[in-house]
Amino acid sequence: MSKGWAAVAAYAEEAQKRQKEYDENKGNFKPRAFPLIVKMGEEADVTFVDVEPDMRTLHTLQLNEKWTTRPCLGDNCPYCAKGNKSKTRCLFTVVDHRSYTREKDGVPVTYRDQLRYFECSPTTADNLNRMLTRKKKKLGTDGIVVNISKSKVDKKSPPMFDLLDRDPESHRIPENVEPFDFDEVFALDSATAFKEAVSGNQVKYS
Predict the structure, then answer these.
(1) Stretch (H or E) spanning 164
(2) What is the pTM of this model?
(3) Mind listing the domains of the chain with CATH numbers?
């Protein structure tokens, strides 16, 4: 472990270098599809990249202690056979304008404007559309920022939406961003699905 002001200065210089590299190159790689997480009592300002939702029939399960989502495979779906009820969900690609800092190779890097997918019920998606229609706005437009929040007291309460008045320049959709291909995101072969479904010690159904 280094010590002294010289070490501090070198660390700060390296952190600035890493941050600059990330800021300059974040639009040049294909992002992985992670869900937008908004916990109880939290909120997130997002810009929707999609104009319309993608509707899918999905299963939610716990695999290796982590919650994940899998597509329903229809009449011969092994998740259905194990008693996991599928749900119809609406999916949107969004830009999450929240910022957070994580260490990369021991140096902190601040991330912002991350591409995520927002998953909700058709009823919740309809509430979003009605709110936008009343205010004569549409998704997929730069500067149209939606605040998504979750109740502090009711875990099962659906997300709440509010249209925000933000500077389009500070909440602009990053360049070269395209909506997720959800056929690719939820691609799953039947052999993998069957293996997960029969692994009772690894899978817990909701």
Answers:
(1) strand 160-165
(2) 0.75
(3) 5-205 (3.90.198)
